[in-house]
Amino acid sequence: MSSATVPDPPSTRSDSFWAFWAVFAAFGTYFCMYGFRKPFTVAEYSGTTFGGIDFKTIVVSIQVLGYMLSKFIGIKIISEMPPKHRAIVLLGLILSAEAALALFGIMPRPWNAIGLFLNGLSLGMVFGLVLGFLEGRRVTEALVAGLCTSFILADGITKSVGAWLLSNGVREDWMPFTAGLIFLLPLCVCVGMLARIPAPSEQDIAARSARNMMTRHDRWSLFSRYALGLSILVGIYLLITVIRSIRADFASELWGDLGQETPPSIFTRSEMWVALGVMFVNGLSILVRNNRLAFFLSLGICAFGFVVVALALIGQQTQSIGAFQFMVLVGFGLYLPYVAIHTTVFERLLAMTRERGNLGFLMYLADAFGYLGYVVLMFSRNLFLGRENFLNFFISACWVALGASLLALAVAAIYFANQGRQPVISSAIAEHG
To answer: Is the peptide bond before 110 cis (omega within 30 degrees of 0)?
Structure first.
């Protein structure tokens, strides 16, 4: 059995109670983390350029650079993290991120961008620490869907908070630090709740496999065994991450290019609809007990999401849908595969193969290369694109990503349908006796 964070709960404590507890704690923790990461993106920093690059692109790129480096570091640290250390490390990273935002406020431009680099470096491992409390359970998809709903909703709500602070006279460079203070206390409460979640039960382990801390040998063994299939999935995730991040970090610019005014509430309203739809679709995966079937259904959910994005792009280009509908449909379509990979694809891959490993390793492998792709895009964008063409750039990038992702999904499905059949059979025998 994997290491426990606390002793097994007494029999009077129901599974349902701990499931709701875990969802609330994980949702709250990651929701509040976004209060330290995203509010700055609502500021436009207009009129400020350095080396021909606008300051908004500089700060977004430099924060993502730190975030991306943290993901590469996390491949080792998260996969090896003892459960008893997760909560204290998580709080330390959050406090470091807030200190970095203070640095952003104190230092002059453009040197204050260093503060956002350090902020991203601190926050990049938070997701893996939270995920460690939730994986390897019979209801993991529902728990992680709740966790992922937090970053969909938080992306909009924390931007609304940032916009509200700006409208009340807080300076652009101090707004991120001020927003972080608002979210600090509730985050600490939610981390305390995370630390009380019991370890997976014996029934969970029988259904989903034990999740172990991984050595370097364990990581290489798991990757090499499924190298082609995992590489394809990581490539798909890279494309989704790039497009999703553009939509998230440059939402103000996209709304403006669509001719839509952007009061603070619009970020919350659009993401609320996205979150509800994505949570519902991906959370239903817990109803599928067969791990192999659930894995392939999750690939189908990814494909469905790409089709939704394609329909939204056609609707916008033919002017048959409005700006709000376009942003919601694109968000829904992009987050369907993005969240499916978080909740089901890697979770059920481990469950059906019974390989030694944990979800944190696979997610950080994907996240590291996903954010690497976004960093490359952000640093190269100004070489060929003016800020005034942002909507056209976004639409073109979506079409490229959709075509490549659908082709890659088909190849991945064929690969995994023909690989590892013996482990899958063994898994089925272990599950059903």
So the answer is: yes
Domain range annotation of the chain: 15-432
Residuewise pLDDT in 10s, the chain (433 residues): 333 344 444 443 477 888 899 999 999 999 999 999 999 988 888 767 776 777 887 888 899 899 999 999 999 999 999 999 999 999 999 999 999 999 999 998 888 999 999 999 999 999 999 999 999 998 888 888 888 888 778 878 888 899 899 999 899 999 999 999 999 999 999 999 999 999 898 888 888 888 889 999 999 999 999 999 999 999 999 999 989 888 887 787 888 888 877 676 787 788 888 888 888 888 788 888 899 999 999 999 999 999 999 999 999 999 899 889 999 999 999 999 998 998 899 999 999 988 888 999 999 999 999 989 888 877 776 554 555 567 888 899 899 999 999 999 999 999 999 875 544 434 443 444 3
In DSSP notation, 77-122 reads HHHH--GGGHHHHHHHHHHHHHHHHHHHHHSPTTTTHHHHHHHHHH
> What CATH fold (topology level) applies to the domain 15-432?
Growth Hormone; Chain: A; (1.20.1250)
Q: Tell me if 52 sits within 8 A of 382, measured CB to CB.
A: yes
Q: Check if the beta carbon of residue 131 is closer than 8 Å to that of residue 148.
A: no
**75 and 285 Cβ atoms separated by less than 8 Å:** no
- Contact present, 329 and 317 (Cβ < 8 Å): no
In sequence order, which residues have a C-beta less than 8 Å from that of residue 280 and are 6 or more positions away? none
